[in-house]
Design a protein that fits this description.
213 residues, mainly beta, DNA-binding, 3 helices, eight-stranded antiparallel sheet
DNA sequence: CACATGATCGCCT
DNA sequence: GGCGATCATGTGG
């Protein structure tokens, strides 16, 4: 049994389709994982629940590079029931449960069979000014009511989860090592975390907000 | 900011 | 049995 599905926070009620935003193509999610991680900064992650839409604007992501990445669940080709959705085609959802109380959501990248993904770490509410609501992967899932029962869902089959391209300019994008993977040897220092430098919703210590490109 | 701790449980060895 | 892609809270610098 997985966790029961809570309602999304009502303050996230929003339908990106009303803005005429476009969805990403399947091929986009098959691109290099670091490219996808960077490109989806500023995009809208949307979810339908009980016939209402909720959405948040992504401002922080991390790339997980599969079998060669000691920080990835699919390191060394590990293939268990939990990780299995990582092996799906790009554009699927991979959600896992950690620390006995939190869920983390990823978007799978690369063609089927290559288990890489982008962790969604932080986002902003449609109306803004709710800095902590979506700051951190656990809170992101909690606010949107995302649980492991949605792991394996396809974002590109007109379902309840979708990703829309952002319209406005993203601003500067910062880069740093990933958070919470210090056990991963040299992979722990790889610069695979991307974030919108001027967003108040970005998680993690200020010490990781220095560099930008 | 850095560091420490507790909560809480599915997953893997 | 141990630990984690976390968070909230508390301490100290």
């Amino acid at each position: 049994m997985t966790k029961k599905s809570p309602d999304p926070d009502h303050r996230l009620a929003f339908n990106p389709r009303s803005l005429g935003l476009e969805e990403f193509s399947r091929d986009f999610f098959r691109l290099d994982t670091t490219v996808v991680a960077r490109e989806i900064i500023g995009s809208w992650f949307a979810r339908r629940h009980q016939n209402k839409w909720y959405a948040a604007r992504i401002v922080e992501t991390e790339a997980y590079l599969g079998s060669d990445d000691a920080a990835a669940h699919s390191w060394r080709g590990r293939r268990t029931r939990r990780v299995e959705p990582m092996y799906l085609d790009g554009g699927h959802l991979y959600v896992f449960f950690v620390y006995g109380m939190h869920c983390c959501a990823n978007i799978v990248t690369q063609p089927a069979g290559i288990a890489q993904a982008v962790l969604l770490r932080a986002a902003e509410a449609p109306e803004g000014s709710l800095p902590k609501l979506l700051s951190g992967p656990g809170r992101f899932c909690a606010a949107l009511g995302i649980t492991t029962e949605s792991s394996g869902t396809d974002l590109l089959s007109n379902g309840d989860f979708r990703l829309f391209r952002g319209k406005a300019a993203h601003g500067k994008i910062g880069v740093s090592k990933r958070i919470g993977v210090d056990y991963a040897g040299e992979a722990a220092d790889w610069p695979l975390r991307f974030f919108e430098t001027n967003s108040p919703a970005v998680s993690g210590p200020a010490s990781l907000r220095g560099k930008s490109t």
